[in-house]
């Protein structure tokens, strides 16, 4: 009786890249959405002024009636703090207004997903780093896109700080987006080295030119 193998092992190289893309993107999306649900339900919030009673999440945070309270993970460096971000990753594009940011960034998110699928279609089967990169970017883009469409804002909850400096609050989708873009740059570097390695050397070019009769052989 032969041992059963995984679907990924049985798949052709062309199909395998799509399988890896689907698995990594779905896992990234699931991790992002699960942590956001946890943050919205578990992290403390407090009302401002007359709204000192029960806060409705995310609406009251979005309307600045309530705010997230920090929960220390590593004292002085890392907190959980619930925040609703109308902009993009790490709080970018918040200055264009909530409605404008929602429309613009939703379009950008959808375009990004289609762009990742197109790039994956063009990618070679041996570009495994790129397959992971595209999947992470797609998973992160969809994670924030779901928030933006459903709530009008994105749930952020990870706060890194040092002394009085605080980095913009972010989430798991932001992290996988950054990692995915970083892997894309690694793939670009690998492709540049590959192209240089495939280029003929000076001696090979000279030999080819002689064979084509473009250079006279003076040794004869």
Number of helices: 7
CA distance, first residue to last residue = 68 Å
Question: What general outline do the C-alpha atoms trace?
Answer: elongated
Q: Uncertain regions: pLDDT < 50 for 5+ in a row?
A: none
- Share of residues in strands: 5-15%
What class would the helix/strand composition place it in? alpha+beta
Strand line-up of the largest beta sheet = 3-4-5-6
Spatial extent as radius of gyration: 25 Å
Fraction of residues in helix: 55-70%
Q: Oligomeric status of the shown chains?
A: single chain
Please describe what this structure looks like.
The structure is a single chain. 56% of the residues lie in helices and 13% in strands. With 220 residues, it is α+β, with helices and mostly antiparallel strands. It has one domain (9-211). Strand 3 (71-74) and strand 4 (78-85) form a beta hairpin. Helix 2 (13-42) packs parallel to helix 5 and helix 5 (128-151) runs antiparallel to helix 6. The model has no long low-confidence stretch (mean pLDDT 84).
Quick take:
With 220 residues, this protein is of the alpha+beta class.
Topology of this protein?
Blueprint: H1 7-10, H2 13-42, E1 45-47, H3 59-62, E2 66-68, E3 71-74, E4 78-85, H4 98-122, H5 128-151, E5 154-162, E6 165-166, H6 172-198, H7 202-211
Antiparallel strand pairs: 1-2, 3-4, 4-5, 5-6
Helix pairs in contact: 2-5, 4-5, 5-6
């Amino acid at each position: 009786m032969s041992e059963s193998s995984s679907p990924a092992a049985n798949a052709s190289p062309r199909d395998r890249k799509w399988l890896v893309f689907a698995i990594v993107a779905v896992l990234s999306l699931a991790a992002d959405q699960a942590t956001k649900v946890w943050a919205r339900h578990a992290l403390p919030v407090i009302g401002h002024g007359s709204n000192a009673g029960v806060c409705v999440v995310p609406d009251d945070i979005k309307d600045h009636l309530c705010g997230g309270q920090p929960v220390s993970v590593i004292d002085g460096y890392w907190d959980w703090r619930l925040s609703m971000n109308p902009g993009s990753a790490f709080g970018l594009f918040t200055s264009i207004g909530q409605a404008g940011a929602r429309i613009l960034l939703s379009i950008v998110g959808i375009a990004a997903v289609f762009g990742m699928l197109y790039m994956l279609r063009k990618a070679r089967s041996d570009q495994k780093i790129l397959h992971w990169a595209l999947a992470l970017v797609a998973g992160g883009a969809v994670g924030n896109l779901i928030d933006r469409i459903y709530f009008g804002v994105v749930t952020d909850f990870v706060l890194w700080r040092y002394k009085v400096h605080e980095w913009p609050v972010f989430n798991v989708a932001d992290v996988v987006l950054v990692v995915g873009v970083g892997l894309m740059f690694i793939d670009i570097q690998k492709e540049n080295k590959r192209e240089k390695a495939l280029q003929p050397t000076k001696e090979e070019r000279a030999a080819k030119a002689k064979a084509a009769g473009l250079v006279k052989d003076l040794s004869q």
